[in-house]
Amino acid sequence: MAQGRRARRVLAVGSVLALVAFVGGAAAAGDDPTHPLSEGAAKNAPASGVARSAALYPRDGRRDLTGDDRARYPGAGVLWCRRPDGVPQKAAAAWLIGTASTVMLNAHNFRNRQLETTRPVGDCYFQIGGRNYDFVAESLRLGVAADATRLHITDDWALLRLARPADAPRQPVPGAAPDLSTGDLALPVTLVAPGGHQNYRGDSSLEACTLRRIDPPTEGGIRRARHDCNDGYGGSGSGVFDESGRLVAMQSASLSMNSRHAFDIEFHYGSALLIEGELLDALRQAQREDTTPQAPSQAPSQAP
């Protein structure tokens, strides 16, 4: 059983390869210059018109982010990276969190499944509140262990420091790990995708959806949350919030990105990593070590 769970977990990261590039809303499904699909997978990828209009599930409750949403979910930003020709393109969601200089995002923006470097940090920048901020390239901290040979859902996180503090509200570091039991559940959540999805019409989106299962802890003491939130290319790094507005997880990848059919807990679901274990420890450490004067972070408002 343990081997089966691990096999499924590694398989899930295969979809990470499809999530990194969001080529200005113009790429077909499977078009990922950073992580190209295999020849067989490319043949099975749908045409551009299909990929850009289809949600993962028959139900699609996504809507555009509003100003009120951004106030309720502070810190929502976008990772932009330059193509080989120098043209910037959206890559993924990213979060200003804890301090005005700390950004949380997915490790797969810079590493593939075999942990090979796919793009340098210097090719990317963080955008929030209509402003662009460069990263300190050598500040990259990856969630993978020093002896790791593969990237998994539960270590698919990274932290970066900005070259200058961002003039924007930030997401507070959770005071504690999510109080969620391992196993099946039905927890109402909201997926906040500041970078949008290729299969959604807007530049950003928000959707009410459900966490369906919490897997046992694996890498770094972190658990995977399986959910039924719609996802699309460019949606990695999106935040998963509970009903009180508290950040509980970060989106990593979804299975069967080119398929639209009913949620299936084993074969058609989204994967997010909970904000706990080594990730939560790293966020707290970044907060302790940051000496930049900080404006108060914006605590989440309570649900009515």
From TrEMBL:
Superkingdom, taxonomy of origin: Bacteria
Annotated Pfam families: Trypsin_2
Keyword set includes Cell wall biogenesis/degradation: no
The keyword Signal belongs to this UniProt entry's keyword annotation: yes
Region (Disordered): 285-304
Signal peptide residue numbers: 1-28
Chain intervals with Low complexity compositional bias: 293-304
The name this protein goes by in its record: Serine protease
The species this protein was found in: Methylorubrum populi (strain ATCC BAA-705 / NCIMB 13946 / BJ001) (Methylobacterium populi)
